[in-house]
Amino acid sequence: MSNPSILILPGDGIGPEVMTQVTRIIDWYGNKRDLKFDVSTDLVGGAAYDAHGVPLHDDTMAKAMNVDAVLLGAVGSPKYDDLDFSVKPERGLLRLRKEMDLFSNLRPAQCFDALADFSSLKKELVAGLDIMIVRELTSGVYFGEPRGIFNEGNERVGINTQRYTESEIERVARSAFELAMVRSKKLCSMEKANVMESGILWREVVTRVHADYPEVELSHMYADNGAMQLVRAPKQFDVIVTDNLFGDILSDCAAMLTGSLGMLPSASLGAPMDNGRPRAMYEPVHGSAPDITGQAKANPIACILSFAMALRYSFNEGAEATRLETAIEAVLAEGVRTADLLGEEGVTPVTTSGMGDAILAALDASL
Ligand code: NAD
Ligand code: IPM
Ligand code: MN
């Protein structure tokens, strides 16, 4: 049988820098655990635009549809600010999500003990935090029609449309209930049913799906209150399910609870493929970080943890995923820090590859 296949799309800015560390980890699994992958690499975002004039070539899209998992670094750069909207780097990422139909985006926010002091919140509020935001990823205001900038009388109007069908809400709700069942059986759904019809429908459908998961304790919260509650008392939550835009914002907010945006991984999952694996793309929550690009400062942990999620959700290697997560925890406990995690006196930051070295050493030590 052939090895499972991975398409790596490093992208722009710090994307290639953090992805280099992930490829070292993938090689480690091949050499030390006999867990081999067929890895190919291609362009996305500004890098693809520079080569092909589009942020995602059709051939790359076709490759993404034919692998077991895609790993993506990050896209975007101020360099492309003046490009036409249709070819901006971010469109490449959105096309991948839409055409792969990756409707369920899992964004875990976990506070490692060693980093509890780095949160912008008091240590006792975040110590032990382990929540999972399930963000709907293929619909809502990101994709709804009509959209565009139009002339209206003697001025222009910018339009985006929040749109959700019942089936779109139902499938992401189901994935959140399934997750809640294997976690602490607690789910909070966030929308704004007080002002948006799409929110009313969201609440209705989630409530209906709840009938199939009676063991799960379901609550509903307006998303603005949810944002406040996330910083007031984040440990009240376990699984949160929400729409595309609220999920984008709430997950960045949750990131800071854990100490740094450079720590947060994500898995974007779709329906099962013919081989039974879910169609899947794994990417850090952070972006291309133009302010630190090329300085060897980027924290590769979010991207490496995204690969750990691939081991768990695409390759059925939960124990190896835990090995990798435990190695990262050990490295943090030893005090190894990239520059985004500084704060303690007398700590010299390691570079991006220095963090990779430390994680590889911890993996070796785990054997
Ligand atoms: P960003 O996430 O790139 O950066 C926000 C801040 O966090 C910056 O100060 C950055 O230095 C820091 N940061 C982010 N990741 C880090 C890491 N791994 N290690 C250390 N520090 C890190 O968000 P932004 O500045 O709003 O956006 C920059 C570009 O990235 C934009 O073009 C945006 O569209 C794009 N973006 C892409 C993705 C993605 O590819 N999934 C996600 C978010 C933003
Ligand atoms: C994210 C990013 C993307 C989003 C952008 C880059 C398209 O912010 O993955 O969180 O808005 O979804
Ligand atoms: Mn975002």
UniProtKB/TrEMBL annotation:
Its EC number is 1.1.1.85. Substrate binds at R97, R107, R135, D224. Residues 5-359 form the Isopropylmalate dehydrogenase-like domain. GO terms for molecular function: 3-isopropylmalate dehydrogenase activity; magnesium ion binding; NAD binding. Mg(2+) binds at D224, D248, D252. It holds the Pfam family Iso_dh. The record marks Y142, K192 as: Important for catalysis. Coiled coil: none annotated. GO terms for cellular component: cytosol. Its main location: cytoplasm. It catalyses: (2R,3S)-3-isopropylmalate + NAD(+) = 4-methyl-2-oxopentanoate + CO2 + NADH. NAD(+) binds at G287, S288, A289, P290, D291, I292, T293, G294, Q295, A296, K297, A298, N299. Signal peptide: none annotated. Keywords: Amino-acid biosynthesis, Branched-chain amino acid biosynthesis, Cytoplasm, Leucine biosynthesis, Magnesium, Manganese, Metal-binding, NAD, Oxidoreductase. Binds 1 Mg(2+) or Mn(2+) ion per subunit. Its cofactor is Mg(2+); Mn(2+). InterPro entries: IsoCit/isopropylmalate_DH_CS, IsoPropMal-DH-like_dom, Isopropylmalate_DH. Pathway: Amino-acid biosynthesis; L-leucine biosynthesis; L-leucine from 3-methyl-2-oxobutanoate: step 3/4. It is found in: Cytoplasm. HAMAP family: LeuB_type1 (MF_01033). NCBIfam families: leuB. Belongs to the isocitrate and isopropylmalate dehydrogenases family. LeuB type 1 subfamily. Homodimer. This is 3-isopropylmalate dehydrogenase. The lineage of its organism: Bacteria, Pseudomonadati, Pseudomonadota, Alphaproteobacteria, Rhodobacterales.
